[in-house]
């Protein structure tokens, strides 16, 4: 369970008291505000008694005048708590399995809806004797699901994303894993591989993906693309996925981009596009040969989300778009010239920006100074999510971002999948608490338990999962980003 924080001030005393239940143990930490305080732990015979013990301690403290300051106002679970009437949705994908699970609190009861992605699922209502009892059960279920690998994709769509574009963007990028495999869903719909007109399915619950296998002919991709664009599914397609366009990783995506632009009228409703959705078992990320994405922005005026994978040959020349809300660039090494092009892009509606900076070994020569247009908040004034991920300069970014305007502007700061150490973790302790920040994601990191604990005490949700071990290569310690090739 997430740690809950309480504070007490009477003009003379300024104290804090934190409590966290871990299975059958209840851990408390207390002391003067501004100090690390002292820690105690009490074990109980079972989880039920541990929950009761935690609640008893909380009642004792609140009766003495302590006030909870936990982000979300008394949450639990993953730190956010249950907003009255708010629906929270979680997704899980693994191999051929693609499921969703949603929960909505309603006072002394809550609704749980679950099923396969693309279906309405089944709904169950669970009632309790009190709102407190409902909250406990709610928190326990959320914890169980996230422990099993379910990832939260947003609440009730109150951000106005209509169609879940931003929620699905978040879902596909915040899993606690460094594995780069093929997605099962995109913008909340099941991905279906298109091989011929017979592949088209009834309804509008699928996003079509065009790709080739290693034993296909060189012209297979172009034939499939041409055939798909001639179907009735193309003009109504909101999402589209481009996988491997060549049997061998030696051809640029330039001809594919040109064909999409040429046949733009056949994809008139396109709002979300993924170029290069290629798993590691097919081709290493840094082997993918990309090209200039600039022409796509002019060709598709309704585009809201663009995601790319691979940085070899990648460019964003003269980008201008009035409706794009989410841009994600996955790479093992993102050149600073590409970062500069993105910084110069005219994207007034951009809310979500995710850049995998990678390592110098694979072309990632970007330094913190190259990110200043983003960190200053001037490049994208409406940004709500900033992800500077998979980076070997994570410590440098952490040291600068805490004093940058963007730290107060965004709701989510994501520095995950990189080589963040205690140096960067300690810097992040100075993140502003008077801005919009609600979530810090640093999963896959090299920080110590002591620094992780301090980060967990920050007044917003902090994801510190997937700690990595430093490797000793004899001539020095080695730390690696999650995806370097």
Reported CATH architecture of the largest domain = Alpha-Beta Horseshoe
Helix content: 10-25%
Number of domains: 3
Low-confidence segments, given as residue ranges, are 71-85, 154-165, 170-179
Give, in spatial order, the strands making up the sheet with the most strands. Answer: 11-12-13-14-15-16-17-18-19-20-21-22
Tell me the Rg in angstroms. 24 Å
Strand content: 25-35%
State the end-to-end CA separation.
36 Å
- CATH class category label of the largest domain: Alpha Beta
CATH H-level superfamily title of the largest domain: Ribonuclease Inhibitor
The chain-level structural class is: alpha/beta
| Average pLDDT, all residues | 83
- State the total count of DSSP E strands: 24
Biggest sheet descriptor: 12 strands, mixed
General form: globular
In CATH, the topology of the largest domain is named Leucine-rich repeat, LRR (right-handed beta-alpha superhelix)
Number of helices: 12
């Amino acid at each position: 369970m997430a740690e809950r924080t309480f504070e007490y001030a009477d003009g003379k005393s300024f104290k804090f008291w934190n409590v966290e239940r871990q299975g059958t143990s209840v851990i408390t930490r207390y002391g003067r505000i501004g100090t690390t305080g002292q820690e105690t732990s009490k074990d109980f015979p079972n989880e039920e008694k541990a929950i009761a013990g935690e609640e008893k301690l909380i009642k004792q403290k609140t009766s003495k005048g302590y006030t909870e300051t936990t982000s979300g106002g008394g949450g639990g679970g993953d730190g956010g708590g249950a907003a009255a009437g708010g629906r929270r949705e979680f997704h899980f994908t693994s191999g051929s399995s693609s499921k969703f699970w949603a929960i909505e609190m309603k006072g002394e009861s809550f609704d749980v809806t679950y099923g396969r992605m693309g279906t309405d699922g089944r709904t169950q209502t669970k009632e309790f004797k009190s709102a407190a009892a409902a909250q406990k059960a709610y928190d326990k279920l959320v914890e169980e699901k996230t422990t099993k690998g379910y990832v939260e994709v947003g609440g009730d769509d109150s951000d106005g994303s209509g169609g879940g574009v931003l929620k699905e963007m978040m879902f596909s990028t915040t899993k606690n894993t460094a594995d780069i495999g093929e997605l099962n869903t995109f913008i909340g719909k099941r991905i279906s591989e298109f091989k011929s007109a017979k592949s088209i399915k009834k309804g509008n619950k699928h996003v079509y993906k065009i790709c080739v296998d290693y034993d296909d002919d060189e012209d297979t991709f172009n034939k499939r693309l041409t055939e798909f664009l001639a179907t009735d599914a193309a003009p109504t397609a909101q999402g589209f996925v481009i996988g491997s366009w060549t049997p061998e990783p030696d051809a640029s995506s330039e001809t594919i981009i040109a064909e999409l632009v040429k046949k733009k009228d056949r994809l008139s409703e396109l709002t979300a596009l993924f170029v290069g959705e290629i798993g590691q078992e097919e081709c290493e990320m840094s082997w993918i040969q990309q090209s200039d994405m600039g022409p796509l922005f002019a060709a598709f005026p309704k585009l809201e989300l663009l995601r790319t994978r691979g940085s070899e040959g990648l460019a964003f020349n003269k980008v201008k778009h009035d409706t794009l809300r989410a841009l994600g660039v996955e790479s093992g090494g993102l050149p600073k010239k590409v970062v500069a092009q993105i910084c110069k892009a005219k994207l007034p509606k951009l809310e979500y920006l995710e850049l995998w900076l990678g390592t110098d070994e694979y072309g990632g020569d970007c330094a913190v100074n190259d990110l200043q247009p983003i960190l200053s908040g001037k490049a994208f004034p409406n940004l709500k999510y900033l992800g500077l991920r998979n980076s070997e300069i994570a410590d440098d970014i952490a040291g600068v971002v805490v004093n940058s305007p963007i730290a107060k502007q965004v709701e989510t700061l994501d520095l995950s999948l990189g080589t963040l150490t205690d140096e960067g973790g300690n810097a992040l302790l100075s993140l502003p608490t008077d801005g919009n920040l609600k979530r810090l994601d640093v999963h896959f990191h090299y920080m110590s338990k002591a620094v992780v604990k301090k980060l967990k005490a920050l007044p917003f949700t902090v994801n510190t999962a997937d700690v990595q071990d430093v490797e000793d290569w004899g001539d020095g310690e080695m730390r690696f980003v999650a995806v370097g090739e």
